[in-house]
């Protein structure tokens, strides 16, 4: 049997004369010119030549393995494959091994002659060169798009859609979810809990903790485009402001370092301090100083780890631990706790989002009603549309979840009860507390302490 193999991967190839119909017509004409009538078509429609995982090609290989094929004919060598390695594998390890000849209808060679085999190897090299050139040109074109501030991919980040000009446009309802993801991450929620929260609101998108990690790292939300490590200013509008993004990166860094260092600590502020000058961890250490009377004095101090590594890395100094602890305790005892209202940054934005969600909800309800009407009229069996109805109901509930989030934000307040209780306990009982109780109380109130070179501290509270 003569096997006629055709492949097309893109509309551009079809427009350039490589359509499947054109290939079939040429191959059948070639067979007729040779007097061959026993042939069969093996056609891969829409499959790239850069890999071997093509249904028709795999079926052809099974036929060859069973000894049912005498000759394989293609319109052009690159229809068989775009990689030199794959082409040579097929010719040497499959076709030759099973005594199958290989011919091209448009190129002057066949593997039944030594000259044809040599020419085939040369053409395979040039075929791969052409593929590599196309890849390089494509990458260059995508980079030029990024330089111009246009999105360089067919897929785009959650929170955006792409218009006809190639510029990302904000999807308001999705953008609000992005902002809430950043808010929850910055306040200390786990990536897993954020992923579970988001999954309920976007049922058609799989969300896990890695997805959340990629979101908080993505500079696209700042209005930028990253291409191979280079950052370009995009033409699209930012969803997240610089301050919020920077806070998320600090939180990400702190979580990473905390995981590396472990939890707990011996001293009052162990593993809670960072350097206000360079951002590195500030740690406790013991020092010894020789006194005038010849005796030695021992001190507990705190120091930036970068300063210890090299004096040029940070301009801060080491300080007596008791001095820094006193500064922190003084601020803690002076704090006045009041409920903090979470007001909306822009009420009109939330109204627009609610309008969009209500519109989406109406569309889902219309689709459900249309399907139910068709079932009641006997036009469609319930079994046919049952899965679709369930999916629509899932979408409806997800929209309700989002609407509820927005409405709750309009009236919600931060629960400061644990914070207030810890603050009151420090005010009333600090001097009577045991060291481990003091450490626990401090950690209820404080997320991070930044220590500066001029010996002042800034506290990031757990509210």
UniProtKB/TrEMBL annotation:
Gene3D superfamilies noted in UniProt: Putative Large Serine Recombinase, Chain B, Domain 2, Resolvase, N-terminal catalytic domain
Superkingdom as given in the UniProt entry: Bacteria
InterPro entries: DNA_bind_recomb_sf, DNA_bind_recombinase_dom, Resolv_N, Resolvase-like_N_sf, SSR_resolvase, Zn_ribbon_recom_dom
Stored Pfam families: Recombinase, Resolvase, Zn_ribbon_recom
MF (Gene Ontology): DNA binding; DNA strand exchange activity
Organism (species): Alicyclobacillus acidoterrestris (strain ATCC 49025 / DSM 3922 / CIP 106132 / NCIMB 13137 / GD3B)
Official protein name in the record: Recombinase family protein
């Amino acid at each position: 049997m003569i096997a006629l193999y055709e492949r097309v991967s893109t509309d551009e190839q079809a427009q350039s004369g490589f359509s499947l119909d054109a290939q079939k017509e040429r191959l059948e004409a070639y067979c007729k010119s040779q007097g061959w009538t026993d042939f069969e078509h093996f056609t891969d429609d829409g499959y790239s030549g850069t890999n071997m995982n093509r249904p028709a090609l795999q079926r052809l290989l099974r036929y060859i393995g069973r000894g049912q094929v005498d000759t394989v004919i293609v319109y052009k060598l690159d229809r068989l494959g775009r990689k030199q390695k794959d082409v040579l594998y097929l010719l040497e390890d499959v076709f030759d091994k099973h005594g199958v000849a290989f011919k091209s209808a448009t190129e002057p060679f066949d593997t039944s002659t030594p000259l044809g085999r040599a020419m085939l190897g040369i053409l395979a090299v040039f075929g791969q060169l052409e593929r590599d050139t196309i890849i390089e040109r494509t990458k260059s074109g995508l980079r030029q798009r990024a330089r111009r501030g246009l999105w360089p991919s067919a897929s785009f980040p959650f929170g955006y859609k792409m218009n006809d000009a190639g510029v990302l446009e904000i999807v308001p309802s999705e953008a609000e979810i992005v902002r809430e993801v950043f808010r929850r991450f910055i306040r200390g929620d786990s990536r897993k809990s954020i992923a579970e929260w988001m999954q309920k609101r976007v049922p058609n998108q799989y969300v896990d903790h890695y997805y959340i990690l990629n979101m908080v790292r993505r500079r696209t939300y700042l209005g930028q485009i990253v291409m191979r490590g280079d950052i370009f200013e995009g033409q699209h509008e930012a969803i997240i402001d610089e301050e919020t993004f920077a806070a998320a990166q600090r939180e990400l860094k702190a979580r990473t370092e905390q995981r590396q260092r472990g939890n707990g600590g011996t001293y009052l502020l162990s593993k809670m301090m960072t350097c206000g000058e360079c951002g590195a961890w500030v740690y406790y250490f013991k020092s010894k100083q020789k006194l005038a009377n010849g005796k030695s004095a021992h001190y507990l101090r705190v120091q930036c780890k970068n300063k210890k590594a090299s004096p040029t890395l940070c301009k801060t100094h080491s300080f007596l631990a008791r001095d820094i602890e006193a500064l922190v305790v003084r601020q803690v005892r002076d704090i006045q706790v009041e409920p903090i209202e979470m007001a909306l940054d822009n009420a009109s934005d939330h109204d627009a989002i609610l309008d969009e969600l209500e519109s989406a909800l109406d569309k889902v309800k219309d689709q459900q009603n249309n399907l139910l009407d068709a079932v009641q009229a006997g036009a469609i069996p319930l079994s046919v549309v049952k899965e679709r109805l369930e999916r629509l109901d899932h979408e409806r509930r997800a929209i309700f979840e989002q609407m509820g989030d927005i409405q709750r934000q309009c009236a919600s307040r931060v629960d400061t009860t644990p914070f207030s209780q810890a603050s009151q306990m420090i005010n009333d009982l600090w001097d009577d507390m045991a060291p481990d109780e003091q450490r626990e109380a401090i950690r209820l109130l404080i997320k991070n302490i930044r220590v500066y070179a001029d010996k002042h501290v800034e506290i990031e509270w757990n509210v």
